[in-house]
Amino acid sequence: MAEKSTLELSEAVIPKEQQYPVKWYRSTFYNITILGLCNFAAPGIWGAMNSLGAGGAAKPNLVNAANALTFCLMVVSCFFSSVIVHYIGIKGALIFGTIGYAPFAAGLYTNNRFGIEWLTLLGAALCGISAGVFWMAEAAIAITYPEPWNKGKALGYWLTYRLGGQILGGAINLGLNADRNEAGKVSYTVYLVFIALQASGPLVALFLNRPSKVQRRDGRKVHLTIAQNPWYEIKATTRLFFGKKFLLIVLFIGQAVFAEAVYFTYLALWFSVRARALGSFLSGIVAVTAGNLLGFWIDRSKIPLKTRARSSFWVLVILQGAWWVWATVLATKFHKYPRTYDWSSYGFGHAFAVYIFLTIGFQMNYLFLYFIITNLAESEDEVIRYAALLRGTESAWQAVSYGLTSVTIMAEIGAVYINLGLWAIAIFPAWLLIRHFGADHEHYGHDGKPQVLGGLQHPSDSAETTEETRSKGIEI
After folding, report:
1. Closest to 190 in 3D by CA, of 114, 109, 119, 116
2. Residue 233, CA distances (Å) to 239, 375, 472, 473 in order
3. Nearest to residue 372, comparing CAs of 439, 453, 447, 251?
4. CB 352 within 8 A of CB 275
5. Taking the model in full, what pTM does it have?
6. What would the pLDDT profile of 8-64 be if each residue is shown by its tens digit?
7. Please, is 348 exposed, middle or buried when counting C-beta atoms within 10 Å of its C-beta (0-12, 13-18, 19+)?
8. Cβ(69)–Cβ(261) below 8 Å
């Protein structure tokens, strides 16, 4: 029988009697909860607005154009985020990243109530500048802070808060618009609640522990370090992007996140106000459930990593394929015979269900992408770089998708076809990478020495190694 890989050994749960005692306000659960609340207040509420379809507007064009601007700027801020972390630390980056979301909500409010468009675009720009840094920071924290055997569950728990924003937003909007069975924009009162929640994001982020303060039950300290100058970071991040491993998943990232603009626009075009609110609420609940189930499966360390990685990949790929074929058939039909569906309409179920399934697929893909990045990074500074690359690449794809869906013909039918095509061409290159997870007993770093994938080391790492790392790098 083959020996277990280094990664699989590091994932093994330490018996409770051997675990280190931790203070609740220094624990990984506490910190992931704070991170989740930040996620809820910032991108969670942003998702709540978009899950209403076109940010709650009557027509999707302006809001989709604004979202395209946001994601274009996020590509830039993601790329330089490791440099920002070098100067203000991971906690400072998280705080900075939450600042730009409230202005975007304010822009949607003024457009909804007064028809003012320029503030929507300004808010989108401010959101893009800060959100790219936030996306990198939260990803690095979520990957690095938890114990190895809790990573999947921690990712599912953290991402639950993002969908929690969508669920809350949908519930509020459903209560305010339950009697509106026609197409149109949502009540502007909804945005006042959203603005208040997003403004709380920086305050919540203040409660996050710095890496040196975190206490893990495996006794290992969290050290996120930037050992070189900012120019070195830029070059190192660029090298990782053009490396074979990351390039193999660029299309897979694309098919996963391109979908958001597509299904939100689908909801805005073909459903009544109250049906859109129901979609926001219900899709969040089922996506939370699916995401957490995937997280628990990924954490089943008794099952070989190879089995978990491959089974998760193929289940996702097959389900996504079926759902996109379904969506393509419906989009073609609706383009030819347009109508507005309400929950009291004949045929509502078959038109509405695909939106729910695509939301589930987005959440599961999102979590699986973090699992991939965890297994690519060879050190904790690479976690930051890969997190920045993941979120920057996501932003680039979403900038394209929101830009395309601001054009009527693409919103109605073209973007759905593109997403189906992306799904098809992304499978093979992603499989070339996924098939190696758990297949090799050891992973070798740039220096030729065995390393644990995902920036994880065994708890028996020597104190000398920790001190050496601390002396060489700038703790962030």
Report:
1. 109
2. 10, 20, 15, 12
3. 453
4. yes
5. 0.76
6. 445 556 767 777 888 999 999 999 999 999 999 988 888 777 665 444 444 556 777
7. middle
8. no
